[in-house]
Design brief:
Largest sheet: 7 strands, mixed
Radius of gyration: 18 Å
CATH class of the largest domain: Alpha Beta
Number of strands: 15
CATH topology of the largest domain: Rossmann fold
Strand order of the largest sheet: 10-9-8-7-11-12-15
Shape: globular
Helix content: 10-25%
Number of domains: 2
Order of helices and strands: EEEEEHEEHEHEEEHEEEHEH
Distance between the termini: 43 Å
CATH architecture of the largest domain: 3-Layer(aba) Sandwich
Strand content: 25-35%
Number of helices: 6
Length: 271
Amino acid sequence: MTIENPFLPKPATVYAVKSEGLETKTLRLKLLNWNAQFVPGQFVQLLLPGVGEAPFCIASSPSDTKHIELTIMRRGPVTRDAHYLRPGDAVGIRGPLGKPFPIEKFYGKDILIVATGIGIAALKSIIMYIIENREKFNEVTLLYGARFPEDLVYREEMKYWAKDINIIITLSKAGLDWQGLRGRVTDHLASVKLHPECMATVCGSPSVMASIVDELVKGGLDSKNIYVSLERHMKCGIGKCARCLIPGGLLVCKHGPVFSSDQVSLKAIGE
């Protein structure tokens, strides 16, 4: 019996590069002689030869098994060099990895998707899945917040998403020319009709996620129906280095990155 080496990356090449903002790009990767079978919420380790590797959530539809998309904000050595990649460049992929969203539990339910900043990348896959299988879900609302207009990710895609789901966008530091909503996402949660059976997904900065979960519970949502993506702090991706250990003895890369909010404390979410 052949055992697959979990540290051995699989080959891929850069198929296309799209600028999402000043510090954010989306890489569309073509998989070479293998298919990516994944569920929304999972992630991969991206290996840049001679540089290193880092984890990134998959930001594309599970229906396309020949390509995956990664939306990357420039923050460190790997993300910096990822921004210099061009079509044809070779990379390595380990994964898909991690625990995804329990998508079957969302069938037939109203869904609230709350994202801030680059956090929407972790939720794009489930958004795409919902849109491609729209008949399986009830009312769906995306509440998305950022600081400035240039921080908004997937602006072009959202024009098409709006045909199938409700989209609410708010900016916390917009200029005078901004004609939309202002403030944090928590300022606009009250405008969304919530009930205990509604399902919610949340991703953003740690402290904001904790505030959102707190407000959703106060608004009547059952904590077991609120799912957060805690993709931060991961290193090896397979639960060996323990760098992503959070309170409760949970490893984000192995037991997550998707958790229901009754599995983890607000402290663990917000730290």
